[in-house]
Amino acid sequence: MLRLGYAHLPKPLQFLVFQDTLLAFRILPDIQPGYGVAAANSLLQAAEAVLPKQKAAAAVSEFKRSVVTHKRRSKSHYDGDTVELSQDVLIRLFSFLDMRSLVAAGLVCKSWNSAAKENTLWKIEYYLFFGSSGVKEIDTPYDFDWKDCFQEK
Q1: What is the pLDDT averaged over residues 123-133?
Q2: How many other C-beta atoms can be found within 10 angstroms of the C-beta atom of residue 97?
Q3: How far is 117 from 120, CA to CA, in rounded Å?
Q4: Where are the domains of the chain?
Q5: Which of 50, 75, 150, 152 has the fewest CB atoms nearer than 10 Å to its CB?
């Protein structure tokens, strides 16, 4: 459907289709990991063929992120007395922390530091701390670094 109809849509609808494509990459591995990655791969091929270069690059980036997420999720394991949580679980847990606690959690170990640097967590912290002033969602590029924006403000 993406290949057949994208070029014929008005610009606002093209934007919505692009946003939905990125959303599909984010949720497909959660549905059925084996099938999700295969479906995301097919969607990626269609997106690369149809979308403009910048949007295709964003789609490729989101696809890669979803594949990494899938791999992280499958790495959770129990080792004797300790349990190593996957990055997705850590990120979900960290989403309930305030800014100071998030920074402190990032100092615990490499795995926690990696999870605490997640851009979506800092976006949440930015909006909680500053509100929507200064940065509009529509104006922010796809790879906008919310942690840097938070630190600068």
Answers
A1: 74
A2: 17
A3: 9
A4: 6-78, 87-150
A5: 152
